[in-house]
Amino acid sequence: MATTETMHGLWVAYGPAGVVGSIRRDDAGYTVTMAGADEAIGTYPTMDVAKSALHAHLKPGSDWPQFREH
Length: 70
Prior knowledge:
This protein is mainly beta. The chain has one helix at residues 47-56; strands at 9-15, 18-26, 29-34, 42-44, 66-69. Strands 4-3-2-1-5 form a five-stranded antiparallel sheet, with helices on one face.
C-alpha cells in the first residue's frame, strides 16, 4: 500500500538578486528548500518557523526575503 502526500501550497522567496528558496506546505508541515539545492533543509511545524529557517540559511546580513504564494 502506497502513502501519498497532498501539497497544500508553495511560496517562493525572493531576495534582491532573485529567487533564494521556496517553502512547500504538505501533510508533514512546511518544507524549506534553498535555491539550487538538491535536498530540503528541513520541515517545520509553522510557516513562521519555516520562513525564519530559510532566512537563517542566507548569507549573514541578508535582508528578509519577500515571500510570494504560487
